[in-house]
Amino acid sequence: MPGVSYYLSKIIQAMIISVVVAYAATPLSIRIANKFGIIDKPKDERRVHKKPIPRFGGMGIFLGSMAALIIPAGMNNKIQIAMLGGALMYLLGIIDDILDIKPLVKFGGQVAIASIVYALGVRITFISNFFGLKLAYSNTNLMLSAGVGYLVTVIWIVGITNAVNLMDGLDGLAAGSTAIMALSLAYVAYIHGARLGSMPVCIALVAVAGGCLGFLPYNFSPAKTFMGDGGALYLGYMIAVLSVISPLKQATIVGALIPILTLAVPIFDTLFAMLRRTLKHESIMHADKGHLHHHLMAAGFGQRRSVLIMYGIVGIMGIVAVLISRELYKDAFFLFLIALLYLCIIIVPKKPKKGIKRIITQDTSELEKEYFTEYLNYERERRKELREAAKAAAEAEAEAEESGKHKTADENKE
């Protein structure tokens, strides 16, 4: 079995190749997008950008990560399967970027790709023992039947794929967050790699993160290009599948929690969106402005600060997953509470309406108006105070001048 130094060199190679190829390929994707009209136009209020932006940047992420994935692909047959599914998911996203296919058709394509991956051998076959009981005479894992295993695997892949896609709402948000999540999972795979044989998965995750980092300079606010559905679906799929491939299985459910905790922010945002739309009697596939990043924007943080705040929360959850993998449960618990607190602060407005349902379903456009009105009132008060201060200063100056004149007149009389 190759040593740690061998895998470390592979990790470094994967990072360099993916970053360089993605960085070099993204300008080409911009030219292709402009030539063929693959442009994202601000046609509704949900979009944050004000001018047309090319949305074919996912090509850079795809080529960068795939070029780096060639390194570990021969070491693990399941990674080759992941690459095949990734290519198909990227193709589905490109079709959507060009033709703007219906959500149900896109969803059906995702299910079909997840089914192919399952049929080829990448699957969830058991759920770890919920109670952590280690009995020498019994199997502590709950083995899943073929049907249940198929459903769990497809739901996981399709769910995470769409969760990452939903994050692609601000410049640099999806790319940076995915890079953080991939590196967190890669580090977990690395520290347990020698014992559990997860080094190939670590290298693959680093390749995905490198593709995001190479693309990010063109995508961070103000963005020169968007990754489009091609890039977003590909990234979500790769994170989902590589977390399934990873052999990080422990005797308790903790092992299964690691990828869930790493991906907690997009999962939470997706579940919250489904709950919000259900309470509003809308389709769960209906697009709206109620995501976490929309709340931050409505509060007036702007794109860059909103994205950096989201990076911080995603990073905290990545650290929580690492701590859990090392069985540092108390440390992880307190960090998890901090992340949860921040999520609550983002969701609950400054002046919440009465009732949990009203808070959940409150549209961020209403919040924007409230914050804007509050800002206008603040500006009025501030300018009023400035006028009053200027008036008081002018009166004091006039009094001083008048007093000076009287003093001079008295001196002349003397």
Task: Describe it.
This protein is mostly helical. The protein has two domains: 359 residues, no CATH class; 50 residues. It is built from 16 helices and four strands. It has a two-stranded antiparallel sheet with strand order 1-2. It has a two-stranded antiparallel sheet with strand order 3-4. The longest helix has 50 residues. The termini are far apart.
**CA-CA gap between termini:** 109 Å
Order of helices and strands, N to C? HEEHHHEEHHHHHHHHHHHH
Number of domains: 2
Sheet having the most strands: 2 strands, antiparallel
Uncertain runs = 128-139, 249-254
Spatial ordering of strands, largest sheet: 1-2
Attribute tags:
about 425 residues, mainly alpha, 2 domains, two-stranded antiparallel sheet, two-stranded antiparallel ribbon, 16 helices, 4 strands, about 75% helix
